[in-house]
Each structure stands twice: as C-alpha cells, then as structure tokens.
Design a protein that fits this description.
By secondary structure, the chain is mainly α. It has seven helices and no strands. The chain has a domain of 79 residues: Arc Repressor Mutant, subunit A (Orthogonal Bundle), CATH 1.10.10.10.
C-alpha cells in the first residue's frame, strides 16, 4: 500500500474549495462566536444547523492548518487567513524575509496542504 492510497492528493477543484473556505474563515469564526454568545441551547433548528456547519468547518480548517509540517508555510497561511490579512498585507509582511514570489509559492503550498488534509477530515 502506497502513501497515496492512505492519503489521497487534492485535485484542482479541492484546492479551489479549500481556498474558498479559508477566505471565509474569519466570517465563519465570527458566526460561531455570535451563536455561542446567544447560547447554543436557545437557537432555532435552522440556527443550530448553521452553527454546526460553521463550527465543523472552522474546526476542520484549524486542524488542517495545524498539520502543515513546514512552520514557515503554516505561519504564512495563519497570517493570511486565520488572522484575516489581505494578500497584499501578507506579501508585505513576509517580504523582508523572502521574495514576494516565494511568499506566493508558500501560500499556494499551504492552501494545497490544507486541501489534502480536508480530504480525510
């Protein structure tokens, strides 16, 4: 049994979906926090369904980012998506350490790593 059998690789569509979810991370986190502030037990059925969707998505994204082995890539992904920074701010923040294109490559590798992990979560 090869590693590919154990952990399938993400397709281009999977990577695109992972990026879409990462872009929504801040909104989903805010929704979870607001629904928890209201009290989960007092939520309507529709609100409870939304809460579970947002909570599971946020938890899965958190786990996927934590499993990125390269700490530099993990730091870039956290800064960009978990901290809610813009692409331009991310490039500017890390450009003192590395070239802009390197930051972009590492960001893309991080998104692909998240997509790979989301396949088995």
């Amino acid at each position: 049994m090869t590693q590919l059998d154990l952990f399938p690789r993400a397709t281009a569509a999977d990577i695109k979906q992972a990026k879409r979810l990462l872009c929504r991370y801040a909104k989903y986190t805010a929704n979870v926090n607001e629904l928890e502030r209201r009290g989960v037990l007092s939520l309507s059925s529709k609100q409870l369904d939304s809460y579970h969707f947002y909570k599971n998505t946020v938890d899965n994204l958190d786990s996927a980012v934590r499993t990125i082995i390269d700490k530099e890539i993990q730091e870039i992904v956290k800064y960009r998506y978990m901290d809610g920074q813009s692409y331009t701010a991310t490039i500017a923040h890390f450009s003192s350490k590395m070239d802009d294109r390197t930051v972009d490559r590492k960001l893309n590798k991080g998104i692909a790593a998240v997509a790979d992990t989301l396949l088995w979560l």
